[in-house]
Amino acid sequence: MRWMGAVAVALFAAAPASAPVAAQSGDDAFRTYLAELARQAEREGVSRRTIDAVMPTLTFNPRVIELDRQQPGGGANSPIPAFEPYRRTHVNADRIARGRQAYQRQRWRLEKIERETGVPESIMVAIWGHETGYGRVMGNFDLPRSLATLAFEGRRRDLFASEFIATLKMMDRGVPREKLVGSWAGAFGGPQFLPSVYLRLARDGDGDGLADLWSSEADTLVSIANYFVDAGWRPGEPWGFAVNVPAGLDRAAIANRTVSPRCPRVHDRHSRWKSMAEWRALGIVPQTRAWPGDAVQATLLEPDGPGKTAYLLTGNYRVILDYNCSNFYALSVGLLADEVER
Q1: Across residues 248-260, what is the average pLDDT?
Q2: How far apart are CA 159 and CA 14, in angstroms?
Q3: Which run of H or of E encompasses 142?
Q4: What are the CA-CA distances from residue 144 to residues 14, 148, 157 (Å)?
Q5: Is 219 exposed, middle or buried (0-12, 13-18, 19+ CB in 10 A)?
Q6: Using the 8-state DSSP alphabet, how is residue 188 labeled?
Q7: Superkingdom of the source (predicted)?
Q8: What's the predicted TM-score (pTM) here?
Q9: Residues sharing a CB contact under 8 Å with residue 57, sequence separation 6 or more, in sequence order
């Protein structure tokens, strides 16, 4: 499992490692901050019952800060590694085999969710596999304690204070306190949602009245699908596919000239958008699948450079990037999905 849930990555990446930290982490300072956090939670509508039940139980967790500061930086000018080694470790035989088992076990449910949402069964399974190994590794950190600690530390106080309060709101919605465990960075359950994402997009898939992302595979899968619907998934359109690029392709003529407001380094690696008909006219050849409709738009990505496997990537690929703004992650999700349903 990665260090935190995929939907949290872009938020965390925005903060520089050298940002100032809270002046002290002693118990008195932490208790003072908790009182401030409690007042903020009450102003935002959290019940007094929940506040009084949680706040006295919290202590500062130095291990969370240690893990936070161990995260790699990766500056804007740092070299981008090759994709192929990443693909071999993230779309490996074990993950594919377990994914196929999960796919078959949940097939009756997945078919129903796909009919209702348009999100492919295999994409739901691939996200589940990448996030938590199909529910095997979900983290055991106490979420309120971790989030309060990260908020107190101060580098991303607004973010973590907001997520802490969202966790209290989850309790007000009926999530038991003992279920609130996850990664040290606040993501949890099969989809590794942040609390704010849970409040917006988690769904009850088994009809028991609670969106239980820790114990219910039905809730996990329908919540992943709901995330993709909310992010704009287009039913019937592939995420992308591997292609061969002719040696004489004029890459300057297809270069992207726009700047993405989000994750620009990720999007800068893509070409400009062209239709499938236009890509075919340029000599692009699919490796293993037929062309989609001529009007479908796609960008070209060559993650390992010219002469290696390239990919045509549709708007649905951008939905996977919304889950985790990393080309390596999104490519691996798509490729795992293809293997799972093969």
Answers
A1: 94
A2: 11
A3: strand 141-142
A4: 22, 6, 14
A5: buried
A6: B
A7: Bacteria
A8: 0.91
A9: 144, 145
Long-range contact pairs involving 22-30 (C-beta distance under 8 Å, separation at least 24): 22/152, 22/153, 22/154, 25/60, 25/62, 25/65, 25/152, 25/153, 27/59, 27/60, 29/152, 30/59, 30/60, 30/152
Domain boundaries, the chain: 6-69+138-229, 240-313
Average pLDDT of every residue of the chain: 92
Residue 79 has which token pair? 């070299």
pLDDT at position 221, please?
A: 98
Give the H or E element holding residue 128: helix 121-132
Q: Which class is 6-69+138-229 in CATH?
A: mainly alpha
- Write out the H or E segment, with its range, that includes residue 266: helix 264-267
pLDDT digits (tens, 9 = 90+) for 79-96: 889 999 999 999 999 999
pLDDT surpassing 50 at residue 16: no
Residue type, 100: R
Distance CA 335, CA 313 (A): 12
User: Would you place residue 19 in the very low, low, confident or very high pLDDT band (cuts 50, 70, 90)?
Assistant: very low
Token look-up 């949402």 returns 117
Q: Please answer whether residues 182 and 189 qualify as being in contact, where contact means their C-beta atoms are separated by less than 8 angstroms.
A: yes
